[in-house]
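I am writing to request your help with a piece of structural work I have in hand. What I wish to show you is a protein chain and, alongside it, a tokenised description of its three-dimensional fold. Could you please explain, in whatever detail you think fit, how the structure tokens follow from the sequence? You will find the record immediately after this paragraph.
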Amino acid sequence: MTDSEWWKERRNLVARYRAMEQETTDPLAARLLHDIVLDLEAELEGLRQNVGLDAAA
């Protein structure tokens, strides 16, 4: 799997969890899904910053 495929897969995963969060009617499930989305977004942002630092070096 190339880096671009990996990034695309991760973005799709975030989108799927966001959709599930919007569709659920269970408040606990919605909160758990929201936490998952936040974790995935933080992971992507951290990797994006690391890639930016690597490119600048």
User: Anything to note?
Assistant: The chain has a mean pLDDT of 87. The first helix runs from residue 3 to 23. Residues 21 and 32 are 8 Å apart (CA to CA).
